[in-house]
Amino acid sequence: MNNKNLRKAFYEAAKAELEHLPKEEDVFRTYSVDFEKRMKNLFESENKKEMKEMTKKRFSFKKTAIVVAAIILCLTMTAAAGKIIEMKRVPELVPMLQESIGKATVGMGVEEFDKAYDESDDFWKKSNGDTQILPDYSESMDFDIKVEDKGYVFTLKSVTKVLAKDFKVASGNVFDGSAVFEWQVNDAYYAFVEVTRADGKKLDHEKGECFEWGFMIEGFEPRSTNMCLRGYPIKAYWDDYTQYIAIDITNMMHFAGRDFAIVALEGGYGYNIDRETVYADKEGEMILKNDDFIGALLRFRVDDKYADEKAAEEFIGDTCFNNQAWFKGYTKD
User: Fold this and answer.
1) In angstroms, rounded to a whole number, what is the distance separating the alpha carbons of residues 155 and 143?
2) Secondary structure class of 285 (helix, strand, coil)
3) Which of 256, 260, 290 is nearest to 273 (CA)?
4) What is this structure's pTM?
5) Whole-number Å distance between alpha carbons of 122 and 252
6) Of 100, 102, 86, 95, the residue nearest 45 (C-alpha)
7) Of residues 133, 166, 189, the one with CA closest to residue 63
8) Quick count: other Cβ atoms within 10 Å of Cβ 313?
9) For residue range 145-204, what is the model confidence (pLDDT) as tens digits?
10) How far is it, in rounded angstroms, from Cα 162 to Cα 188?
11) How would you class 251 by CB atoms within 10 Å of its CB: exposed for 0-12, middle for 13-18, buried for 19 or more?
């Protein structure tokens, strides 16, 4: 891990809100007048502290960045649920959460998973990321949906059930620093995506052909939906000709019965699911509308049997992603 990765974690969580603060129709809640100044100071101070700690604890650097990003995200998205937390508390929470991460426990089934994982020769063992997955290919939905853009082909190959070992909040609350973390094994669903060159030539690794991955659900406001579905594990592996991407869409699956979209946006340039890059409406139309970047919208639908209305309602309540204000005055142009 390095400075760039920490800045990126913070940047992704806060960018969409910060860049739209002056636009009244885009503001989901009232911000303090020095909100942006505090955010900037927070990023700089936490970046310095994390660099000192990165050699001490293997997980502290990345996981603390993710936790802080989640706090910032909820600060900007949870007003409807009445969960306002003052920005001045965030620096205070970071060391508390970091200490909890260092004391993470091991949950049920982890030892059995570790043994099976060590014995497995599954393809995804080669991919990066802390999350480890063991796919159950007998529970896989094949799609082979292709979208070509500017010389690249994006292919949604399948959605597959997996056993996933990951870092979770077992109890407590990240917002008051009482969170207890645990390694857990749970059922999850991953979308497997491939990126290749349309001309069949090798990928240029030195060029850094990387893509940011976003999420949309038919009929829901795109930007906040994407923000609340981001942060879940994404695994990647490259060979000479193909990028293999595994994207956790477990929470998205609760909304089965609606069309889903996984969106690839050219990485490193600040592109995001916002008014400049996408058009979507309540009736379900979803299109990328900006030709300046390389990107693709992979639209698909899973079987209705995966729908879980209660879980979907709880997810909306926890994240407030169903804020429809963004549709106001929104046109394709």
Assistant:
1) 9
2) coil
3) 290
4) 0.74
5) 25
6) 95
7) 166
8) 12
9) 999 999 999 999 999 999 999 888 888 877 777 888 888 999 999 999 999 999 999 998
10) 5
11) buried
Could you tell me the strand order of the sheet in which 295-300 lies? 211-217, 260-266, 295-300
SS3 173: coil
List all residues 6 or more positions away from 57 whose beta carbon is below 8 Å from its beta carbon: 98, 101, 102
Query: pLDDT by residue (tens digit) across 257-285?
Result: 999 999 999 986 778 898 889 999 988 99
| Cα 177–Cα 99–Cα 4 angle in degrees, nearest 5 | 95
Instruction: Report the length, in residues, of the chain.
Output: 333
Whose tokens are 């060590």? That residue is: 118
- 267 burial (CB, 10 Å; 0-12 / 13-18 / 19+) is middle
- 220 three-class SS: coil
Question: Rounded distance, CA 66 to CA 71, Å?
Answer: 9
